[in-house]
Amino acid sequence: MAIDIEHLPPRVRTRTFIDRYSAFARVNHWITAITFSLLALSGLALFHPSLYFLTGLFGGGAVTRAVHPWLGVILLISFAGMFLQFWRYNLWNRDDTQWMSQIGDVVKGDEEKLPELDKYNAGQKGVFWGQALMILVLFCTGLVIWDQYFGGYVSIETNRLAALIHAVMAFFAIMLIIVHVYAGIWVRGSVASMTRGRVTGGWAWRHHRKWLRREAGTKHAHRE
Ligand code: HEM
Hints:
The protein is mainly α. The chain has one domain (5-90, 109-223): Transmembrane di-heme cytochromes, Chain C (Fumarate Reductase Cytochrome B subunit, Up-down Bundle), CATH 1.20.950.20. Helices cover 64% and strands 4% of the residues. The protein has a three-stranded antiparallel beta sheet. It is elongated and about 65 Å long. The two termini are 21 Å apart. The structure holds protoporphyrin IX containing FE.
C-alpha cells in the first residue's frame, strides 16, 4: 500500500537515507568544480579578443595568463583525487551497454524498463572517462604552450599544434561539463548527494537499485 507521507505529522515522517559521498569526496568534487569554472573563464578570456573582458575577473590580461596554467595544475591534482576514489565504480559492464541501447526510455524517465544499475549509469561513466582523458590531454598540451617555463623546448609547429589541440579539448570538456551539470540538476535529488553526502532510499531505488541492494544493511543506510 502506498502511504502519502506528506499528511503524516513531522515526527512520523521518517525517511531512509543512504550515504553516497564522504566529506572528503565532496570537498574534492567542489574544489574540482570551482577550479574547472575558473579555468574555463580564464581560458575563454585568452581564447578570443571578444572575450578579453573576462580578464577583468582575474585582475587583467597578464595576471590571467599567469594564473591560468597554475589553475590547470590544481585541476589535474584535484581530479586525480576524484579519479582514485571513483574509477572502479566507473568500469563499463553489460548493464551499461543495455542502458545505452535504451536511451529513449532513459529520456522518457521509464526507468522500470531499464536494467538495475550500480553506483553510476553509462552517462555518468562517459562523463568520468571523458573528463579524465580530456584533462590529461589539456594538461600535457598546456605544458607545451606554457612558454614561461617550457618555451624553446619544442618547435613553433609543435607549439601551434598543441595550442590547437588544447583549444579543441577545452571546447569538448566545457560541453561535457554542461551536460554533467544539467543531468545532475535534471535528476531530482542528485545535487543533495554532492552537498549533503546522502540520498533518499527512494532516489537510490529508482536510479541505482543494484547499488542500493549492496548498501542496504550496511552502516551506510540509516533512518531519520
Ligand atoms: C557546478 C558544477 C557541478 C555540479 C552542479 C556537479 C554536480 C554533480 C553531482 C550532483 C554529482 C553526483 C552524481 C551522483 O552521485 O549520481 C556529481 C558527481 C561527479 N562530478 Fe560533478 N558537478 C559539477 C562540476 C564537476 C566538474 C567540473 C567535474 C570534473 C571536471 C565533475 C566531476 C564529477 C565526477 C567525476 C563525479 C562522480 C561521478 C562519476 O564518477 O561518474 N563535476 N557532480
